[in-house]
Amino acid sequence: MKNSEDLVTVLIPCRNASKYIKNAVKSITNQSHENLEIFLLENNSSDNTIKIINKIASEDKRIKVFSLKDSNLIKSLNYGINKSNGEFIARMDADDLSHPDRLKEQIAILKKDRADICGCDFFTFNYKGQIIENFSTPSKTLDCYKRLLFSVPYCHGSLLFRSKVLKKITYDNDKYQSIEDYYLLVKMAEAGLIFTKVKRYLYYLRLHDESFSKNKFNLMQKDANDLANDFLKKNFSLFNKSLDKSIRNILFSELCLIKEKKIIIDKLKKDKNIKTWKFFLLTSIYYLKLLLYLFKRFLNKIYFKAIKIKFIEFE
Question: Does the pTM of the predicted model rise above 0.85?
Answer without folding.
Answer: no
